[in-house]
Design goal:
alpha/beta, 2 domains, Rossmann fold, Dihydrodipicolinate Reductase, domain 2, 11 helices, single chain, globular
Length: 360
């Protein structure tokens, strides 16, 4: 079945939806874009050029577009603080929803959205694109294969030179806790996915040095312990002198019993355990065995659109459905609270308390 959709957000990341993520799914007859929305009329050009929409099919108000088109679902590609307003309008017009991460800008708003979607009997997915990128998918498959033995701990590094205002998109420089909300929302989600376990406790420190032109914290160090005993460390930085592992090119190391798996700038290597190599103090390991990345026609958001359509067709809920994705938002809220209090946070307790306290 081909689903009629309304694209909300055609500038910034929305431009990539118009020219990269949606067209392959249009070509496969999975979706048909009937309208687009952006408050900036100049951004409508992206929808006209890449999705073939007429000027009359482009709007500055989502509610107007929803009222004038009998669509099946909408996408949400606007800053997180505005997600709930678009969700409310979509549900009022009986639309399913596929939204960019995060669900919202706070855990409370995210829980409220999840409850509204459930009450409406609608389906909502969240595009955690990094988890479904080609390199992370390959690493996940390797860990799930069992050939490297049980997983002990994980390390993730995301470091960038984006210290000047506007270098990471102007709106992100004005967000409080911007690293967590706009960056670590992907990376902590990746670590939890690779661990294949829910996070039990989290301790974080976040800050911004004097040379970082951000209103909120843009640097962070996070320690996570998962319910199965796996541990993880995260380093995130937006104001470094040089970007070692920027957006989409993260470094992830998985320490398993029989192998060390290293993903660095989209290249994956395995270093097998060598009993004869013990006590070789100071020696470097040399090169590992290169693991080819998985083959596939679609990755990241392009693939997630297809997954959402499969769900609408009656398949299993996509892994990043809004209810399950509350785990990702709980990690972000836990990191923010931990940094504020200097104490570790019990993540599942935080999520359950929030669910109990939020009403719609």
């Amino acid at each position: 079945m081909t689903y009629d959709i309304i694209q909300v957000g055609t500038g910034g990341q929305g431009a990539r939806w118009c020219d990269r993520f949606l067209p392959p799914n249009v070509d496969d007859d999975l979706v048909n874009v009937v309208a687009a929305v952006d408050v900036d009329e100049s951004a409508h050009e992206n929808a006209r050029d890449h999705l073939g929409l007429s000027e009359d099919a482009c709007y500055t108000d989502a509610a107007d577009a929803f009222a004038e088109h009998d669509a099946d679902f909408c996408t949400i590609v606007v800053p997180p603080a505005f997600h709930e307003d678009v969700v409310d309008a979509a549900l009022a017009h009986d639309l399913h929803i596929l939204s960019e991460k995060p669900i919202a800008d706070t855990l409370e708003a995210s829980v409220r959205i999840a409850k509204k979607v459930e009450a409406a009997g609608a389906k909502m997915g969240v595009t955690m694109s990094h988890r479904f990128d080609r390199d992370k998918t390959t690493l996940r498959r390797q860990l799930r294969s069992g050939e490297h033995g049980p997983l002990d701990y994980l390390v993730c590094r995301f470091t960038c030179n984006c210290r000047s205002y506007g270098s990471w998109g102007a709106f992100r420089h004005d967000i409080e806790d911007t690293l967590m909300v706009e960056g670590a929302v992907h990376h902590l989600d990746i670590l939890a996915d690779l661990a294949d376990s829910r996070c039990e406790t989290l301790y974080a420190q976040t800050w911004t040095p004097e040379w970082g032109e951000y209103a909120g914290d843009a640097q962070g160090l996070v320690q996570l312990t998962f319910e199965d005993g796996t541990r993880a460390t995260y380093e995130g930085a937006k104001t470094n002198a040089v970007g070692l592992n920027g957006w989409g090119n993260e470094y992830v190391r998985a320490e398993c019993r029989d192998s060390t798996l290293v993903l660095d700038s989209r290249e994956l290597e395995a270093y097998s355990y060598d009993p004869d190599g013990e006590a070789q103090f100071g020696d470097r390991p040399g090169s590992g065995d290169r693991i080819p990345l998985d083959e596939g026609e679609k990755w990241a958001n392009t693939w997630l659109i297809e997954q959402f359509v499969d769900w609408l067709d009656g398949g299993e809920p996509m892994a990043t459905n809004v209810q399950d994705n509350l785990q990702s938002m709980a990690l972000i809220e836990a990191a923010i609270r931990s940094s504020e209090t200097g104490e570790a946070v019990a993540v599942q307790e935080l999520l359950e308390e929030t669910k109990q306290s939020v009403s719609i």
